[in-house]
Amino acid sequence: MQKEISKIYKALVFGREVSLAVLDTTALVREAIVRHHLSALSAAALGRTMTATAYLCSWLKAEESALYVTVAGDGAGGKISVSGDGALRLRGYITVPDLVLPPRADGKLDVGGCVGKHGTLRVVRDDGEGIPFVGTSELLTGEIAEDFSAYFLTSEQRPTAIALGVLVAPNGECLGAGGVFLQPMPGASEEAISFAEEKIGLFSNISALIAEKGAKRLLEEEFGVTDAAVREISFRCRCSREKAASAVLSMGREDAESLLEEAGEIVVHCHDCNTDYLFGREDVAALFGGKKK
Ligand SMILES: [Zn+2]
């Protein structure tokens, strides 16, 4: 079972009328759990959103094109923010990383309670060609898959059947995470749309299927696809010590020094990957000293 690298597989099915994508994002979610110290529930909410964002990123034209997804609901988990680029490098966070709620009646994690049923899903897509595209839709269930389906329908006029899931063991380890997307091509027949809607019902347990079989075997067994196009997905942040240093510089010497006086050091925090960049007295002196020349 190869779970070390997250991947997206894409192919055309149903007489090339439906675009199919199967994602194994286990490694991506594992990295998010480690970086943000996520509870199982917060991991499920963030992991499902990251999986959907990876799918959206796979349609970006250029590697440097950027995409920003915000799920802002009224649930106990707060806001989810995920961004990525055309090279499928993603990062993201959830406001409450350690949320615990009682499970739903069916025993599954209560992602809807974490995210909330009222609020918005917003996608900003920047192709680097002028004004970015902004699409917004209302949350339906807070379970993420249905919310993205609603987004595709209302904002991009593309009916899309989606299954998303994250399976976390009692010890907090992610055993499997991924998703299936079935998107009829523009002008597809009614049969193609029904095929997508019916087929998605087989994947209500997608995280367990990914854990057990992996994405490649699912493609073969469920769709007869053996020649899917495959790309790797990674957790990669854009932050760096250099960028953090320029944030310190932008404070101005006086403010930086008074903060230093107060706190002993300056901490620049990156929400996306939960990294702290620390600047002590000598670092700050070097930063501003260099600027004076
Ligand atoms: Zn970062």
> How many DSSP H or I helices?
10
How much β-strand is present in the residues? 25-35%
CATH topology annotation of the largest domain: Hsp33 domain
Within the largest sheet, what's the order of strands?
7-6-3-4-5-10-1-2-9-8
What is the averaged pLDDT score? 95
Which molecules other than protein and nucleic acid are bound?
A: zinc ion
| Topology as a string of helices (H) and strands (E) | EEHHEEEHEEHEEHHHEHHEEH
Your description of this structure?
The chain has 293 residues and is of the alpha+beta class. The chain has two domains: 6-235, 3-Layer(bab) Sandwich (Hsp33 domain), CATH 3.55.30; 241-292, HSP33 redox switch-like (CBS domain Like), CATH 3.90.1280.10. It is built from ten helices and twelve strands. Strands 7-6-3-4-5-10-1-2-9-8 form a ten-stranded mixed beta sheet, sandwiched between helices. A hairpin with a 5-residue loop joins β8 (161-168) and β9. α1 (26-36) packs across α2 (40-57). The longest helix has 18 residues, at 40-57. The radius of gyration is 21 Å and the shape is globular. Bound molecules: zinc ion (ZN). Zinc ion is lined by residues 237, 239, 270, 272-273, 275. Zinc ion (ZN) binds next to loops.
